[in-house]
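Archive entry. Fields below.
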Amino acid sequence: MALDEYKPQSGDAELENKELKYVGTTPDRPDGLDKVTGKARFGADLSLPGMLFGAIVRSPHAHARIVKIDASKAEALDGVKAVVTRADFATGLEGEYGFVLENVMAGEKALYDGHAVAAVAATSALIARDAAKLVEVEYEVLPHVTDVDKAMAEGAPVINAAYADASVPEGMHPNVVRHHESGHGDVEAGFAEADLIVEDTYVTEAAHQGYIEPNACVAQMGSDGKGELWVCTQGHWYVQKHCAALLGMETAQLRVTASEIGGGFGGKTTVFQEPVALALSRKASRPVKLALQRSEVLRATGPTASASMDIKIGMKKDGTITAAEGTFRLQGGAFPGAPMEFSAMCAFACYDLANVRQVGWDVVSNRPKQAAYRAPGAPMAAFAVESVIDTACNKLGLDPLEVRLKNAAHDGTKASWGPRYDQIGMVATLEAAKAHPHYSAPLEPGQGRGVASGFWFNHGGETSVSLSLSEDGTCQVSVGTPDIGGSRASMALMAAEVLGIPYENIRVTIADTATLGYNDVSHGSRVTYASGLATIKAARAAVEKLCQRAAAKWGIEEDAVKWEDGCAVPSGANAGDFDPLPLAEITATMGSTGGPISGHFEATPEGAGVSFGTHIVDAEVDQETGATKIVRYTVVQDAGKAIHPAYVEGQYQGGAAQGIGWALNEEYVYGEDGRLQNTVFLDYRIPVASDLPMIDAVIVEVPNPGHPYGVRGVGETGIVPPLAAIANAVSNAAGVRLKSLPMNPPKILEALEDQAGDA
Amino acid sequence: MKYLTPASFAEAASLARDASGVTRFLAGGTDVLVQMRADIVTPDTLIDIKHIDGVRDIIRGADGGWTIGVATPGAEMKEHAELGAEWPGVVEGMDLIGSTQVQGRATLTGNLCNASPAADSVPAMVAAGVEVTVSGPDGSRRVKAEDIPVAPGRTSLSKGELISAVHIPPRGDNGGDAYLRFIPRTEMDIAVVGCGVNLRLDGDVITEARVSLGAVAPTVLLVQACADTIIGSTLDEAALDRLAEAASAACNPITDKRGTVKFRTHVAGVLAQRTAKIAYGRAKGETK
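PREDICTED_STRUCTURE:
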C-alpha cells in the first residue's frame, strides 16, 4: 500500500444527512449460494482445451549461486512441452519490477529456501512434477542468515550490496537497506519529567496470511502476442501491469480476470506464479494452469515481516505519558520493502503525545520476500508499545483503559506520524470498551485480562466504477476491486440507497481489466470506502440522467425534478403537478428517450478516514504445560458507518482470530541449514475453530467526513491490537511478562521457570 | 504402479513377498495416500487389504477380549459402546487422530505400522497390552504392539509380512485406561508428548499398571519404571511425584519444530500424572 498523504477533511465534507433505508442492513450475501454449493470458481477451477500443467523448480538452499541449469533430461520426458528459466523473462527491469522479477524467478542467486529457479509445463500435473525433478541445477552454496538481528550484525552474509538506499547512514551493514525517522517534541526532556520509565525489547516471528486457497492461475498466450490470465488475486490491474512488464509485453495486450478468491489478507496483492505461467504458455503455445502446493505457499509466497523492537516510555504517577520512543527493525526477506515505516508511524498513533520519536530499519535476509498482511507493520509495533504501556500500568497500579483514555488521541491531536487528526474514534472505542460487560466480568483463577488499542491509516487509491440500468429497472454495477470481504453486498447496498431500488435488483460484478478503468488493489481497507464512494457517485450520475428524462417527459426544468425513494418527483413550483415517476418506468422507454442510462466515476479519493480499535481478552494459562486458552474476546472498533454490519463483524472477528494464531502458535521455523521446517498446516499452526472463543464484535460509528455515509475501512485495524491484547492477558495470567511471539507453550514455561529462578 | 486387491491375508503376504521395489499396504490410506500426494513415497506396488473378509469387524472373543479388524476405522470404534466402556483410553487415542473425515478411514493398524513415535493410538495400545497377529508367507505369529515399531517410520515386519488382526485383552475387573496427548492447539495436531496408562486396583491400591510414553523417543516407550512408582500405591501425591520423575527420566526426545527436549521431558511428567489420575478414576468406576 502506498501511504496516502493524509488529507484531514474539514467538517462534514461529504457526509449526507439523511435517513438510510438500505445502508446498515444485513441482507444475504450475493456470492453465498455459489460458495456453499461449490459453483463458485476459484483460481484453479478453470480448464481450457489443450491446457498444460505447470510445476516450479525451487532452490533447496537458503543462499546459493546458480552455476548452471541443465533442463535437457526434463525436456526429453514424454509430455513435457516447455521449460523456462530467467532467460525467458524481460531484461533491464529496475526498481520494484526488478525485485518482483528476481523473486518470481531467480537470476544469478537463489536467495531463500524455495526460491523459484526454473519451471516446466507438461500434459499432466504428475508429469510436470516428475519433470521438475529432472531439471538439474548446479549450486554454489553461500553462507546464509535468516534472523533480523543477526542479519544486521557485523560479518553477516551480504544478500545484495546494491540494495541500500540513500536513507541508510554510512557504516551500517549492507543488509540494512532503508531507514525511517519521525516524531516531534523533545523526548529527552519528556523522559526527565517521568516518574517511571519502562524500556524493553520485543520480538515477533514472521506469520503467513494463511489464506485457504493456494495461489493459482490459468494463463494463455497467443502467437499474436495477446494474452489472457485467469487468476486468484486481490488486484488484477496490478497483476496485468506487473506480468506485462516481466514478460516484456504492452499492458493492454494482457487481459486479466479475477477469479473468486479464497482469502488474501494482503498476501495476494503481488505476483508469484502468474508471470511464470504466462512464460510457460508463451513458450508452449498452449494454456497453462499453475497452482501452488501449500508447501510452496509457505516457502515462497510472502509472509509478514518479523520484527525486533526497542520501546521506551515515560509515565507520570497519574498515567500521563511524558515521552515515547521506539526503534523497529523489520526483516522482510531477501528484498527491500519490509514495512518498517508503517510500524514506526503506527506505533504511537493512538496517543496524544508531546514528545515522541520513532526509528525504523528495513533489513534483508535469506527468507521469502515479505508481502502485505492486514495493516502491514502495525500489529508488531502495537505488540511492543501496548505491552510496555501495560507494564507501566501494572507498576503504577493504574487501570489500563483509564491510562489509555488519559492519553488518547482526539479530534485535532497532532499525530505521532505528523498530521493533525480530523474527526476520529479513539476515545469512543475506549469508552465503549470500558462500558462493555466484559471489562468488569470477574476472572477465574489462572486467568488474566489484557487490553490493547491499535491504529491503521486506511487508504484511498485509484478507483473506477461503472453502473448501468436495464430496461426492467434493475441495475448492474461493475467494480474492479476483487471481493475479499463482502464488497459486492456493500456496493449493492450503497447503489440501492442512491437509486432507491431494492438490494436484490442490483447485481455487482468484478469486471476484468479490459472492461473497466484502472483500479488499485483490494488492500489498505480501501474497497468499501473508495469503490463505495465511486459506486455512490456513479449512481448519482445515473440519477441525474433519470431526472433529466422525467423533466423532458413532463416538460419542466431539470432542476425542478428531485429523486426520492426510487422515483423522479416534481419539486419547487412544480411540486404535485405530476405523479412520481418510478425508475423502471423511465428505463422502460430509455432507448427512445435519449439512449441507455448509465453512470460512471473515476478518481483517486483522498478522504479515507483513519481507524482505531480496542480489544479486551481473557486468557487462561496452564502453569504446568504453558498451554494457553483464550476464554473470552471482545473487539471494539470504529467503522465510521457499517454498510453491512454482519460483514463488519466478520472483519473484526477475523482480525482477532488471525491475531490469536500469530500471538500463540504461528511462526516460521528455520533450521540451521536455512530451510523452512514447517511447510504444511499441520506444523504451521493457524488456529482451528475449537481454539477460538466466540468473538464479540462491537461496532462504534464515528463518521468519516470523507465518505457520503461516513465509511471508514475496517479490514485491517482488527489485527493491530490482538498481539498486544493477548500478550497482556497471557502475561497477567502467567504472572510474567512475555516479550517474544509466538507465546507457544515452551516459551511460556521457559518464562515461568526464569521467573521462578529470579525469586 | 501396481494396485492389487487380494482376497485373503495369505494372498496379500505372497503378493508382497513377490513384489519388487517399494511396497505399501493400503487400509484407510490416511498416511499412504497423503505421502503419495505429497511426493514423499511413490509405491511400485499398492496392496489394498480392504477387500479381505472381516477386516472391518469388531469381535468379542471367548475370553472377553476384543479382535479389531485391520481396516476398522476410528469412527466404528467410537460408535461401539461396549468397546468404549471397557477400553476408553484405546478408543480415545484412536479418536484423537485427524478430522471427522479422517476418522472415517484411519485405522489402529495403519497408525501402528506408520511407526511414528508420535502416533496417538499406539501409547494407548501399548498400555492396554495389545497384541497383533502378523501374517506372512510362512504362517502367522502374535507380536506385542510395542514390538512393531523399531524406529521412526520402520517396523519389525519383514518382507511379505502384514498385520492381520489387533487383539485387545479382556478388560477384567477393577481396571481402567486412559490416553492424553499434549498439542499446542485443541485438535488437528501431532502429539508433542503422549501418555497411556492402564491399571488395575484392589480396593484403592494399584495392583497392576502399564505406562507408555509417545513422542519422547524414537519409538513409543513402555516404561516399567513408571509403573513401578505407582504399583502398591493409592496414587497419592508422593506416588504422583515419583511417577512424574520416572516419566521425565525415561524421555529421550529430540528438539524439533514441534517441541524442545526440555519441554517434552517436563510435559511427559505432567501428562503421566494427569493420565494416571483419569485411569485411576475409571478403575474405581467413578468416571467414564
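CURATOR_NOTE: Chain A has a mean pLDDT of 96.
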